[in-house]
Design a protein that fits this description.
By secondary structure, the chain is of the alpha/beta class. It is built from 16 helices and 14 strands. It has 3 domains: about 5-50 and about 150-315, 3-Layer(aba) Sandwich (Rossmann fold); about 75-140, Rossmann fold (3-Layer(aba) Sandwich), CATH 3.40.50; about 325-400, ACT domain (Alpha-Beta Plaits). Helix 1 (about 5-15) crosses helix 8 (about 150-165) and helix 5 packs parallel to helix 6 (about 105-115). InterPro entries: ACT-like_dom_sf, ACT_dom, ACT_ThrD-II-like, Ser/Thr_Dehydratase, Thr_deHydtase_catblc, TrpB-like_PALP, TrpB-like_PALP_sf.
Amino acid sequence: MTPPTIADIRAAADRIEGAVLKTPFLLGRTLSEIIGAEVWLKFENLQFTAAYKERGALNKLLQLSEDERRRGVIAASAGNHAQAVAYHGRRLGIPVTIVMPVHTPLMKVAQTQEHGARVVLIGERFDDAYAHAREMEAAEGLVFVHPFDDPAIVAGTGSIALEMLAEVPDLDTLVVPIGGGGLISGMAIAARSVNPDIEIVGVEAELYPSMKNVVEGGSGAIGGDTLAEGIAVKEPGRLTRAIIKEHVDRIELVEEKDLEHAVALLVGIEKTVVEGAGAAGLALLLAKPDQFKGKRVGTVLCGGNIDTHLLANVLIRELVRCGRIARLRVGAQDRPGALAAITACFHAAEVNIIEVKHQRIFSKLPAKDTIIEVECEARDAQAIDALVERLEAKGFVVERAALD
């Protein structure tokens, strides 16, 4: 496959104009202060299907022949690519088949079906679904729409960088999430053509350093449950890895706690919902601010499809990490008045009790003693610290639970 040129990317931008949202590109003022750089955010999570994938999918579909449109297309995806292909396929009157692993969340299956696609559930993993989709492609004469390893897909994603640099021409650096590599490949070609000196940094989840391994010769282990499932790719693209080798300066990895922190800050500060993969660029800026200090940096919030229950967990865990919610294990004598004395300390420290549990059996304390586990919430970390000091001054033994 031949990589797209800047002419291909400009043509793609013209082709999809009006059918995908030209998303806002805004300065994150508070985030800039936190990081010590001028941080610009591209809100691709505001696309209709809540992800940048629409750009590449639409560019691909618009270039199909009449015969190919009549026969229909097929894709393998359990996420944003599925919805992008399904949505624009319906708009254009193109039959769409999406193959998903059997354990794909029902919400994603339903959303894809609502866009008019035929959904086939097969296999335990994405690799199984992908292999079956290629078999159906051949058996039914369908056109396969790859999520990233296709020049038309790459060209469509390049339109993001054109929009960013049109609005802020003097960006020093682009920080872009990497899964299969389609997003950063298109953006890198476009950005290098507009500004050859711009720095381009890719970001992968620490659990899935697949592109870093093949491009930089790393040997990081691949696998595990990551918040950034949208970039949890075991085998990156062949076309995209070649483009990345040529145009991307380096690839950095981010830990799970950094991804969680970025998602939570985007909700709290920017009032926007972003999935783990979409927050990977900001996660790197927050985790390694010294790399970007004083620079003008643009990053892409490339998707916003996150399960609401998972988002709630992330936000609560952020409150724990910043010290506003705590779980304290308080050792006390198991006798009348002990709990009252403990709660009196909470009242005096103005800390709210969320939940209380006695643990009399699974404890190293003497049989006459008990562990009282208290989950509590305060206005800030200092209030929790003051509470612990107050409890210890009263003779109680206090142990704090930690996430990390």
